[in-house]
# Entry
Amino acid sequence: MNQRWLKICFALLFAGAAAFFLWAYPDEKELRYYHNHGNVFGTYYNIRYEATKDLEKDILSALKDFDGSLSSFNKKSTISHINQNKSDKTDLYFEQMYSTAEKVWRQTVLLT
# Structure
């Protein structure tokens, strides 16, 4: 191969790789840092993250869902209703928490 042909192949390979990168990661150039803070569960939260958009609404929604499931201070939460024998209905947060607690309990029992 002559040197000119090699340069052309290299340039095409480089251009193809650059085009693929721009196609595969289009949002990379739009990333920026966000800061959300507020009060929840009787305490204060402070979140800093890098994303393509502000996720505050999603974060607040997740915190609200968690509070509605596992807060013992929220009289309408899933865990409060179970503890008061008002319901035996569970949700995903409760089931994951219970499963984790059971695993820890089993590991603790095996250690004694």
User: Anything to note?
Assistant: The chain has a mean pLDDT of 82. The beta strands are 32-40, 43-51. The first helix runs from residue 3 to 24. The longest strand covers residues 32-40.
